[in-house]
Design a protein that fits this description.
homodimer, about 350 residues, Nucleotidyltransferase, domain 5, 6-stranded mixed β-sheet, 5-stranded mixed β-sheet, globular, ATPase_NBD (chains A, B), ATPase BadF/BadG/BcrA/BcrD type domain-containing protein (chains A, B), Euk-type_GlcNAc_Kinase (chains A, B), ATPase_BadF (chains A, B)
Chain lengths: ~350, ~350
Amino acid sequence: MSSDAGWVLGLDIGGSGSRIALAAGGADSGHAGGMRVVHGSRVGIASRGSSIPEVVDDLLDRAAAEWPEEWAAVGAIAVGATGAFTLIDDPHEVVRAIAARRSGAVAALATDAVTAHLGALAGSPGAVVAVGTGSVALGTDLGSVWRRVDGWGHLLGDRGAGSWIGREGLEAAMRQRDGVATDSSALLAAAIESFGAPETWPAQLYTRNDRAGVLGSFAGRVDALAAVGDAAAVRIMTAAGREVARTLVAALDPRLPRIASAVGGVFAAPAVPAASAPPPASVSGGAVAAPRGSSGAFTDAFTAAVGEAHPPIELRPPAGTPLDGAIRLARLLTSANPPAGHPEHLWLTTP
Amino acid sequence: MSSDAGWVLGLDIGGSGSRIALAAGGADSGHAGGMRVVHGSRVGIASRGSSIPEVVDDLLDRAAAEWPEEWAAVGAIAVGATGAFTLIDDPHEVVRAIAARRSGAVAALATDAVTAHLGALAGSPGAVVAVGTGSVALGTDLGSVWRRVDGWGHLLGDRGAGSWIGREGLEAAMRQRDGVATDSSALLAAAIESFGAPETWPAQLYTRNDRAGVLGSFAGRVDALAAVGDAAAVRIMTAAGREVARTLVAALDPRLPRIASAVGGVFAAPAVPAASAPPPASVSGGAVAAPRGSSGAFTDAFTAAVGEAHPPIELRPPAGTPLDGAIRLARLLTSANPPAGHPEHLWLTTP
């Protein structure tokens, strides 16, 4: 892969952190490979909405400073961000501002569900659930079918995600502190180790604009306790795995084409259709330790629940990360067959 | 009761609204009776902490404007506020600022649990659970015993309160929208009626600094659906009633004196002790419609769960509201036997 076709930037912006990757432009050759990555801060929500624009600006500043030569030859920038639809007033304005950072570049802003999908299924139609601080599933062919499930944030959903696991863990710890539960002493001890005396937790949490991230920061402790057999922690991790499986299954829109496993990309010619083949699905994420945690409780429950789905599902290991998906999207922007936008998932500028 | 002893002000500040009451000073004659009331805004939480000081200032401005003559003769101001301990950096500074508003006046800042207790049990030792947007129980004799349970806010606890009921209702509605639940169509329809399309809920909720209040605003709808027999809503209201009962029972510290029912005040000579008598307990609140809702599901579950407590509890109807309790506290400040402060519940200035 040469840089004759210039360079592309992919950004992945989530509740636990953000990353920007630089990769060679040109044809979308499958895995993003050979990309260089810089990390940035996590997204917050204030009264004016999500801080996505600020985090993007900061990451682009870092990219320009880190890779000054390549920056001058960047032809496409693609951003996948949590809350891009629900917490941004005008995504079109944001994507125009992104493009304006590099004269002549095209830009895309997508929900994190889209970049997770492009990373995990490498362009094939199907369903992908992205689990990190939040949890969102998207069943799509990036054409006519777009079924979104969850991704509603830590107060309305994000069922089974890091923030959900952390909240369940802290709620259980508080029940123990209050004397209304007796099975969560290990969770209480872990929470005190992480946050100090329970009386101080409200002030640490409610004054923050990244509460989901604070909650999610406790998920790894819950998983670690599940790994050593703590019953209350195992119960939470098992429930989380089941919730995420339900979210994934609900995203498998019956209109999605059933294609035989293997290659094929949504913008390439369709692979061999096979009416009897199960639709492909995958899991993405890992910003939070828990879903890929050491306990196995989450994964076991997830796999078992997906295995019970009717009709059956072909669960594939993820081909790449959401950051790979952002790079893939950036390359598609300058390809011969760029994607069309979607009013709830994908916003584009034209060259 | 004359105004020879001057006037007192009581303030009740919660997640759904606030009130200030003016009453005659002098001896604490039981029920606050004859007080005049002005309403104010609800409390919010920003990055610098709770907005209690701003809400108090605003209420005192209103009082000075509404009752200019009495204002000049105010001798005591008592404030009961949600989050006074957990979300205020220095409660002493806040109480000094309150006293400074009226030269010569004494002031008290208390958690809402204290004013709820003083209102509901009229000064008797025992346990009171205050249920509104949040939920907190306090078992106290206002002397040596102070057992607090819950009151941790909508992400860590407030189990069974308005914000908890509203969150459960909206989560269920989102499950229905996502196709992972099929029993919550009435909740989904009610939520759409209240907040519009589900895709807009995150922006309406996460950009607010009074999220608990927004969640709590849906509790009345859940209760109304329970009243017409909607199974999902009945389940939520029943669970809420049980949670609040557990919170109350956990607050009944065994060191609390068991006194025969009837009169007696914690600062008066103790009433006849009776080792065999059950400790008195009560419920306060009602800022949210739900706990006193029309469905009966909450109350039935609460009463049944309290009835199962061992040792048994004497459940009394509340003698007064938290606002009555604030007035009672203000009168106590200027009495011959004023209360002592407590580092987590009650902060005082001296005359």
